[in-house]
Design brief:
With 420 residues, the chain is an alpha/beta fold. The protein has 14 helices and 17 strands.
Length: 420
């Protein structure tokens, strides 16, 4: 980074910025699984825009569709007016994703980001049910706006709201050991009890929460308890959807059908801002403009999102590939963990959402820093930031997976030596 560039960032950018502190590089271009600094130095990207780039940087198939649309002078901004790009996205979503899975959802365009989808979901759940109570899970992350913060399970994050966050109840997330029969009793402890609980919001795998994986049995029990008591089930698939765990929706393997599904991040396919909320048709009780926003119709994201569904979800090849690569990453992490006995390391994850749990945040942070010095971008997550999180593009090659694991192994070794 040049002095002049450093000074403008330091002079003009808020102290709230975070990732640039972890990776102090001025990035210039990106392709596939790699980012390049202005000096041409490559970095293997196992961060992928926090899961927004499932198909890689500047995916050539999606890029061609986007360039063609721009050269055609296609509509860019149209709020919720009908456009050809919007029609194409809805038809493709219906034909490639919903119909093959037997899902019947109406689509809400709530705004450009995942938090917009979460806010809309919470708002709709309360409107439909007439109830105020919401349940969420320990270590959950659903966004940084006020409503989303009210269902975040990270207490430090919640405190950033600056006010009391009421009418919500934290529940313990599946630990792989808990009795699923306890769920009903836990829900009864929510504000207003079962009769006063509008919805439960859950992630099948908690990404920011530490790569915590819920059992299918637990998710099915949760869904059944919600049905018995007319509590809506909101599935936050913002980071783990769009194939991150293998299937398009992360809840498919568990065999549950949520009332509301929140999507964002990789739903546009190209890293362009877009969020969707999928709702059961009988929940579509909005009045015109009752939930709106200026940027809920970004047509460039419609173009790349539809193209991604056509290109990668017309068959099950990507799903199979993701599962295979995910096992390769998991095997590599398990091998790293057993290679350093006594270090407190453990592998966890599903699909291409994998993590290496460490003994503490200092160790995980050191591993991430060492990896960066070796040309690999990985972030940390979970309580005290003690999990090293790997979210590579689904298009990552097996060679890149092996390279990343070699770098990670060397980084663990170096971090252990430095902190000894």
């Amino acid at each position: 980074m040049t002095d002049s560039l450093a000074s403008v960032f330091e002079r003009r950018e808020s102290e709230v910025c975070s990732y640039s502190r972890t990776w102090p590089v001025v990035f210039d271009r990106a392709e596939g699984s790699r980012l390049y600094g202005v000096d041409g130095v490559p970095y293997l990207d196992f961060f992928a825009g926090a899961g927004s780039l499932n198909y890689g940087h500047n995916n050539p198939v999606l890029k061609r569709a986007l360039i063609s649309y721009l050269e055609h002078d296609g509509v860019t901004h149209a709020l919720d007016m009908w456009t050809a790009a919007r029609e194409d996205l809805l038809k493709t979503l219906e034909e490639k994703i919903l119909a093959p899975r037997g899902l019947d959802y109406k689509v809400v365009f709530p705004g450009p980001a995942g938090a917009n989808a979460v806010e809309a979901a919470l708002k709709l759940a309360r409107k439909v049910t007439g109830k105020q109570g919401l349940a969420y899970f320990r270590n959950a992350f659903h966004g940084m706006t006020l409503g989303a913060l009210s269902v975040n399970g990270n207490h430090a994050t919640r405190s950033s709201a600056g006010i009391s966050l009421s009418h919500t109840k934290e529940l313990p997330y599946d630990d792989g050991l808990s009795d699923v029969a306890d769920l009903e009793g836990l829900l009864a402890a929510c504000p207003g009890g079962l009769a006063g609980t509008a919805a439960v919001i859950v992630e099948t795998v908690q990404g920011e929460g530490g790569i915590n994986v819920a059992r299918g049995q637990w998710l099915r029990a949760l869904a059944a308890a919600c049905r018995r008591h007319d509590v809506l089930l909101i599935l936050d698939d913002i980071q783990m959807g769009c194939g991150r765990l293998g299937p398009f929706f992360s809840f498919e393997d568990a065999g549950v059908e949520p009332d509301i599904v929140c999507l964002s991040k990789s739903i546009s396919g190209y890293g362009l801002p877009m969020a969707l909320m999928l709702i059961r048709p009988e929940l579509d009780v909005w009045k015109p403009a009752e939930h709106n926003g200026t940027f809920r119709g970004f047509n460039l994201a419609f173009v790349t999102g539809a193209e991604a569904m056509r290109a990668y979800w017309s068959d099950d090849e990507l799903e199979k590939s993701t599962r295979t690569k995910g096992e390769r990453v998991a095997d590599g992490l398990r091998q790293i963990a057993v290679s350093y006995p006594g270090a407190g390391l453990a592998a966890r994850g599903r699909g291409l959402a994998q993590g290496l749990r460490t003994a503490g945040g200092e160790m995980a942070g050191r591993i991430s820093a060492e990896a960066f010095e070796r040309g690999l971008l990985v972030e940390t997550c979970g309580p005290q930031g003690k999990v090293v999180k790997l979210l590579p593009p689904l298009s990552v090659t097996t060679g890149e997976v092996d390279q990343a694991l070699e770098i990670l192994d060397a980084s663990v070794k170096s971090a252990l030596a430095r902190l000894a």
